[in-house]
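Note to self: keep these together.
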Amino acid sequence: MIQKLTTVAIIGTALALAACNTVRGAARDVNSVANCTENTVNGHHC
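Structure:
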């Protein structure tokens, strides 16, 4: 029983960390697009 709980906890932690990294990556992408758009509006290239 303890082994099953440990396995579930480890898998849950791995999934949570993977989701966190994905959200951070998406936030960086959105920030990059926003910067590029702002630069284009100001007459600069990306």
